[in-house]
Amino acid sequence: KHTEHVYDGYLYVHSGSAANYAAPTSPEYDDERSLIRRYSLASLPPGAPFAWLSGEVVTTGLRNANGFTKNAAGRMYAVVNGLDDVTYKGVNVHNDNPGEQVLEIGMGQHFGYPYCFTAQRVVLPGGQIVPPGTQLEYNASVHDDAWCATNSTPPATFIQAHSAPLDITFFDDQPTGALPERYRGGAFVALHGSW
Predict the structure, then answer these.
(1) Using CB atoms within 10 A as the burial measure, which of 110, 158, 173, 185 is most buried?
(2) Continuous H helices in the chain
(3) 122-159 in b/e burial notation, b at 16+ Cβ within 10 A?
(4) What's the CA gap between 44 and 46, in Å, rounded?
């Protein structure tokens, strides 16, 4: 399944990873999957299929962005199902990692997958705790923490590991109705929960 939306004359389409961990163009980010592409509606042939690779790459490094949307301010956000079986520097940290990312999507960004993950709770030998939200290398991949810090955009925030976010919506321009006004501008995220 591909998640798709139409915004401002473009069709935006996400294609997830082929597996829990897949790095077909290593050491570069995958340019065919684990990304969002966009297609100008004006250039799509009426009534005919279009080539996947003809779309412009918006952002890469998205393992499985099940849901994405635009808020009233015009900013695009996505929720991502992260990796399973995460190890860091040879230590199994999968019970508390990765933090399931909530991302602000923008042109040319890279969000780490499959080389980096968002730390939720990583305790180093000696008891030092890695600051939550830090981008760390995954399973002694081809890159290191310094590469991840430079080449993986941190999330806007993150949700508890393995909560499996499915979609995101914002409480922006809708009438208040039954919701308290203090929620205006906030996001609601639907969680499936995988563990």
Answers:
(1) 158
(2) 145-151
(3) beeeeeeebeeebbbbbeebebebebbeebbbbbebbb
(4) 6
Kindly state the tokens that stand for 36.
Answer: 């969002």
Q: From residue 163, how far is each of 74, 97, 152, 176 by CA, in Å?
A: 27, 11, 22, 28
Mapping DSSP to helix (H, G, I), strand (E, B) and coil, where does residue 108 land?
Answer: coil
pLDDT at 1 over 60: no
Residues in Cβ contact with 28 at an 8 Å cutoff, skipping those fewer than 6 apart: none
List, for residues 46-80, the tens digit of each pLDDT value. Answer: 888 889 999 999 999 999 998 999 999 999 999 99
Q: Quote the DSSP letter at residue 146.
A: H
Which of 66, 72, 134, 60 is closest to 99 using CA atoms? 134
Q: Could you give the CA distance from residue 27 to residue 156 in angstroms, rounded to a whole number?
A: 25
Maximum distance among all alpha carbons in the chain?
Answer: 62
Q: Exposure string (b/e) for 89-98, b if CB count within 10 Å is 16 or more? A: eeeebbebbb
